[in-house]
Amino acid sequence: MDGSTKQDIRKLTLSQLEEFFVSKGDKKFRAKQVYEWLWHKSLKNFDEMTNISKETREMLKEHFAINHILVDLMQHSSDGTIKNAVKLYDNKIVESVLIPTSKRITACVSSQVGCSLDCNFCATARLKRMRNLNPDEIYDQVVAIKDEAEAYFDRPLTNIVFMGMGEPLLNYNNVIEAIDKITSPEGLGMAPRRITLSTVGIPKMIKKMADDGVRFNLAISLHSAINETRSRLMPINNVNPIEDLADSLKYWYEKTKRKVTYEYVIWEGINDDEKHARALAKFCKIIPSKVNIIQYNPIDEGEFRQASKEAVEMYVRILESQGIIAKVRKSRGQDIDAACGQLANKNEVGELEG
Ligand code: SAH
């Protein structure tokens, strides 16, 4: 990263870059060439832009910097999962995770530094929210994982999930701009159906996404379909109760015709009884949906414990008997604190240096 105060060239849109070249007496198409180097090829250095004359490159260097995230620390789990601690331009750190399976390589990316939501079972909540990530900071996390997929697994990146740190719907514009770049041919050209945005479920924003006609997948961190329990787990439910969430999901389905996934952790003594399983099954009937039962990843010595195998089986039986698809997901990367809900910058290399 160039530490100077020069403008970051990647903050410019393609048309702003075109205006810049025209104002310098150059051709408009030069902008497209440079833009592709910056996004599609993710170059960090003007000198590598081989189809741009030396003179033009020098001129660009005088005006602009190319700011990039830096993978500060990379950790490998025994199950193949990789966790990146990523340093941002202001020395803040976020984490992203590469999750390999036999069929897929998934990038799990962060959308905010910290999180404002206070879900009681999540390590990121302990960090509080520091700031939103910029579109390029989200995009760069994906590129870093794409490169690691190729380098370590010799396979392409196939999927992206917004399940890292932060609440993507509280940084909506930047997340959408990042996804636009990830899916555009000048960017990574990935299909929107390979991208999943995971949210605590903010009804107003779910309706907005539906109005905006987004084409990626939606996952809701539900964890309980009973208000009292859900509010205890996720304080956001006090202001956005299940009924409002249900309304927004109906609206989502009417507009997009896309089914949703509910993410669900079952905890001992909290939601591991039949009453909660039946409430979930009822909720799943509102619109076409499926359930991912996630294993709880312990974050401290706190009140939460993963429910028994019998409780998980009871849930699956009840859901399946009502025709609902339920998958039990294994936890990945627990040994390096890379699993769901464990991202908390335990190795704050950059922060200490900064
Ligand atoms: N804010 C978004 C995305 C980040 S969390 C959201 O809430 O969906 C990604 C997923 O991990 C969510 O489903 C969340 O509920 C889950 N999660 C958080 N802490 C967890 C933990 N300790 N164990 C298992 N899953 C957890």
From TrEMBL:
Cofactor(s) recorded in Swiss-Prot or TrEMBL: [4Fe-4S] cluster
Domain Radical SAM core: 101-335
Highest taxon above the source species: Bacteria
Lineage, top ranks: Bacteria, Pseudomonadati, Bacteroidota, Cytophagia, Cytophagales
Record protein name field: Probable dual-specificity RNA methyltransferase RlmN
HAMAP family: RNA_methyltr_RlmN
Keyword Iron-sulfur: yes
Organism, as annotated: Belliella calami
Record's miscellaneous remark: Reaction proceeds by a ping-pong mechanism involving intermediate methylation of a conserved cysteine residue.
Residues annotated to bind S-adenosyl-L-methionine: G166, E167, S198, S221, L222, H223, N297
InterPro entries in UniProt: Aldolase_TIM, Elp3/MiaA/NifB-like_rSAM, Methyltransferase_A, RlmN_N, RNA_MTrfase_RlmN, rRNA_lsu_MTrfase_RlmN/Cfr, rSAM, rSAM_sf
NCBIfam families, sorted: rRNA_mod_RlmN
Cofactor: how and how many bound: Binds 1 [4Fe-4S] cluster. The cluster is coordinated with 3 cysteines and an exchangeable S-adenosyl-L-methionine.
EC id: 2.1.1.192
